[in-house]
Design brief:
CATH class of the largest domain in chain A: Mainly Alpha
Shape of chain B: elongated
Low-confidence stretches of chain A: 1-28
Distance between the termini of chain A: 36 Å
CATH topology of the largest domain in chain A: Cytochrome C Oxidase, Chain A
Strand content of chain A: under 5%
Order of helices and strands of chain A: HHHHHHHHEEHHHHHHHEHHEEEHH
Radius of gyration of chain A: 26 Å
Strand content of chain B: under 5%
Mean pLDDT of chain B: 92
Mean pLDDT of chain A: 91
CATH architecture of the largest domain in chain A: Up-down Bundle
Structural class of chain A: mainly alpha
Largest sheet of chain A: 2 strands, antiparallel
Strand order of the largest sheet of chain A: 1-2
Distance between the termini of chain B: 49 Å
Number of helices of chain A: 19
Oligomer: heterodimer
Helix content of chain A: 55-70%
CATH superfamily of the largest domain in chain A: Cytochrome c oxidase-like, subunit I domain
Largest sheet of chain B: none
Order of helices and strands of chain B: HHHHHH
Structural class of chain B: mainly alpha
Shape of chain A: globular
Largest interface: A-B, 58 and 42 residues
Number of strands of chain A: 6
Chain lengths: ~625, ~200
């Protein structure tokens, strides 16, 4: 069979040469531009998404570290702030208007550019074709466009830092009327137009990517790869793409109306507004309309962020616990449950916007229902670990860390989903603590787990340094809790989010020391990320190469492909699949890859380590 | 597909690109669903000015319906290897598409002359924005159709390319995708037209 395929490829090559000759061209080798820049190879596009994501994460993290300096030491002047921010921080003190720009850009960058594009973009691209046994995406060309639209979105967003009025400052949720009226604040000037244009490009990128992921999963699976034999990673990416495809277009519509309100005098979101005693001409609009449209995307968006991390964690946990994932079917259906529920809970972000209390009650019920599939997943992860033969690789540590964060952050979600408690808790640091733990840090942990685990598939078989990875994990893990846990207490006593400083408020004065503590840890955790960055850069260039094709002794298909990333992934025929990917510690075999036919397990074991396993098998036969 | 460096393989009855197009149509529907539901919510909240749609929108609806018929004919003849007739029908579709754009523009002018301005009451603004977004989707379709026509035309003039193309299994794919998209944007306009009429 392999021979036949090889022939096909040779014939194709000849045809290709003829074709090239016919058109009087002489390039058939991939050039630098088609290989590294406008690449259509899913592995290269995954790398582009990952590296862009890391660059954005450094910027997003730096912004938060800098505004934590302001929150921790509001009276101090920091020379470094003036060096970095220039006229936005005269004498080393951030201007209040720029503080709002910083929190806005931190949120936008982290939610969209890092945890959507950097996480889902990277791993959907890398793993879908590898794990379902496809040579590439359904449309490699559209896949390339997806990255470049993301790149353009990034350039526009970055440019907004350099316009005279600075970047957008209405919060990552971009609520009108502040975002709709250029005169309302400094950042609502041209920066907000750039924000909206950037998001439009970003949405196009997400849609092109999502189309490809769904199509590839449904149409390009190799022989034997039934849907219920797919790794949970692929299931997660699949549902993520469906959610994205249904929710992002609505944000596009919302942004379109906002752009019209800003620039063409329409009144979709504006009515009866007085600025400096003067009435605006706008009438008939409603700012609440924007909130509905925004959160119709915004809530599913948090699942777009967390589902890929859940998929990665499920896969890494089973592999490194050397146990079949517990409740595979329940895992798949709970992702489905979360995906459906994600579309009918958006108004829990709007409990205090004047929403009808009856409608609020309905949204409370749906919101609390999400606890059911989430709890199913948590129990299944914990049960997978139970009595496992755990290998504490950095990827595994980050996966276990993910489960921990998801539980502690998820529990506070139950408080916030209650419309009565929300009257006290909304827009306080309690919310900040909740979503940073459950979706921010948890998703980051999923991303780190993915990078540590699949790094060899990204960089031709090179591995990340495990010791540095372990140090990176512990500082980040402890740091995340130290930063965000205390914020719950601040939030419960009503300390509001997005405030520039609290010195003038009597009730918040008791938290001055706590703010100093949080800021100190934030700086340490930010610096600790360079353990990862340095490890990443060094290992990508000169990392230790893996000794076998399958360093984690994993069952899924990506580890059967060639070590060096080649076009088309497998040099010969695409392997056929005979079983699900979680046959670990089954019938006395440590692991049985998906490619091993039922009843041929012995042969696989003998081929792997003949001397060692012959005796073992003999023992079994007796 | 040889330029990919590997064979394009898929295990499904539907062409993956056709499937991807359906998904894309799904997400376009979502963006219009977002806008039309915003329209309904806003209308329910009051402050709403009622007016009748411009006459030109009726004409443009007829034109877009006719163009759907033409592209279907183009596809049918293309499948029967009658490329010349197919190209003729595709060109007709293209012209009808341009006519649609002009009629929409005329419709907007008519609306403005009636006193319904873009920056007036949201009831009018919605009609401009939603029909404008639909207009953009037609423009996108026409750009794709222009390139498709150029390629088909170029092939027709080169006997060897034409022969090679006749045995190519992917021969009908691009026109089929174009046809699906064009029917969709046509039906989308008919839906929007009816929606505006009754709301």
């Amino acid at each position: 069979m392999a021979g036949t395929k090889h022939e096909t490829m040779v014939v194709n090559k000849e045809l290709y040469h003829e074709h090239v000759h016919d058109d009087h061209h002489h390039h058939h080798e991939e050039g630098f531009i088609t290989k590294y820049i406008f690449s259509q190879d899913h592995k290269m596009i995954a790398k582009q998404f990952l590296i862009s994501g890391i660059v954005w994460a450094i910027l997003g993290g730096l912004l938060s570290t800098l505004f934590r300096l302001q929150l921790g030491w509001p009276e101090e002047n920091f020379g470094i702030l003036e060096t970095l921010l220039g006229r936005w921080a005269p004498d080393g003190k951030i201007l209040p208007s720029f503080y709002y720009s910083m929190v806005t850009m931190h949120g936008t960058i982290m939610v969209f550019f890092v945890l959507t594009a950097g996480l889902s973009g990277t791993f959907s691209n890398l793993l879908i074709p590898f794990q379902i046994g496809a040579r590439d995406m359904a449309s490699p060309f559209m896949n390339m466009l997806s990255y470049w639209f993301f790149f353009i979105a990034g350039v526009i967003m970055l440019a907004s830092f350099f316009v005279e009025t600075g970047p957008a400052s209405a919060g990552w949720t971009m609520y009108p009327p502040q975002s709709a009226l250029p005169q309302s604040s400094v950042g609502s000037g041209f920066g907000t137009d750039l924000w909206l244009m950037s998001m439009a490009m970003f949405i196009v990128s997400v849609l092109l990517g999502g189309l490809n992921y769904i199509t590839t999963v449904l149409n390009m699976r190799t022989k034997g790869m039934t849907l219920m034999r797919m790794p949970l990673t692929v299931w997660a990416f699949f549902f993520t793409a469906i959610i994205a495809l249904l929710s992002f277009p609505v944000l596009l519509s919302a942004s379109l109306l906002l752009l019209f309100d800003r620039n063409l005098g329409t009144s979709f979101y504006l009515s009866d507004i007085y600025i400096a005693g003067e009435a605006l001409a706008n009438s008939g609009g409603s700012p609440i309309l924007f909130q509905h449209l925004f959160w119709f995307l915004g809530h599913p968006e948090v699942y777009i962020v967390i589902l890929p991390a859940m998929g990665i964690v499920s896969h890494v946990l089973a592999t490194n616990a050397r146990k079949p994932i517990f409740g595979y079917g329940a895992m798949v259906y709970s992702i489905l449950g979360i995906a459906i529920l994600s579309f009918i809970v958006w108004a829990h972000h709007m409990f205090v916007s004047g929403l009808n209390p009856f409608a609020g009650g309905v949204f409370v019920i749906f919101t609390l229902l999400i606890a059911v599939p989430s709890a199913i997943k948590v129990f299944n992860w914990v049960t997978t670990l139970w009595k496992g033969n755990i290998r504490f690789t950095p990827a595994m540590l980050f996966s276990i860390g993910f489960v921990s964060l998801f539980i502690s952050g998820g529990l506070t979600g139950i408080y916030l989903g209650n419309s009565a408690l929300d009257i006290q808790l909304h827009d306080t640091y309690f919310v900040i603590a909740h979503f940073h733990i459950v979706m921010g840090m948890a998703a980051f942990f999923g991303m780190f787990a993915g990078v540590y685990h699949w790094f060899p598939k990204l960089f031709d078989g090179k591995m990340l340094n495990q010791t540095l990875g372990t140090i990176h994990f512990w500082i980040t893990m402890v740091g995340s809790y130290l930063i965000f846990w205390p914020m719950h207490y601040m939030g419960m006593s009503g300390v509001p989010r997005r405030y520039y400083e609290f010195s003038n408020f009597e009730f918040a004065k008791g938290y001055e020391d706590l703010n100093v503590f949080i800021s100190t840890v934030a700086v340490i955790v930010f610096i600790a990320q360079f353990f990862f960055i340095v490890n990443f850069i060094y290992s990508a260039i000169a990392g230790k190469r893996m000794e076998t094709k399958n360093p984690w002794e994993s069952n899924s298909l990506e580890w059967t492909s060639s070590i060096k990333g080649i076009h088309g992934n497998w040099p010969g025929e695409i392997p056929e699949v005979h079983r699900w990917p979680y046959d670990y510690s089954k019938d006395g075999y440590d692991y049985i890859p998906q490619t091993v036919p039922q009843g041929k397990e012995d042969q696989f074991l003998l081929k792997k380590q003949p001397a060692e396993n012959a005796a073992l098998l003999e023992e079994k036969r007796v | 597909m040889a330029s990919l460096g590997y064979k394009y393989e898929y295990n499904s009855p539907v062409h993956p690109k056709q499937f991807a197009l359906w998904l894309g149509i799904g997400s376009i529907i979502m963006s219009f669903a977002g806008l039309t539901s915003a329209y309904i919510v806003k209308k329910g909240a009051g402050y709403w000015v009622e007016f009748s749609l411009p006459q030109f929108f009726t004409f443009s609806t007829l034109v877009v319906a006719a163009s759907s018929l033409f592209i279907q004919l183009a596809y049918v003849f293309h499948k029967k290897l009658k490329d010349k007739i197919a190209i003729t029908f595709l060109s007709l579709t293209f012209i009808m598409g341009l006519a649609f754009l002009i009629l929409q523009y005329k419709g907007w002018i008519e609306l403005t002359n009636k006193g319904i301005a873009l920056d007036g009451n949201p009831s009018g603004s919605f009609v401009y924005v939603i029909s404008g977004l639909h207009f953009a989707h037609i423009v996108g379709g026409l750009i794709a159709m222009f390139f498709l026509l150029a390629i088909k035309w170029w092939r027709l003039k080169r006997p060897i390319k034409k022969l090679m193309n006749e045995v190519d299994p992917e021969r009908n794919t691009s026109l089929k995708l174009m046809t699906t998209y064009w029917h969709f944007v046509g039906i989308l306009w008919v839906y929007l037209f009816i929606f505006f009429q009754f709301n």
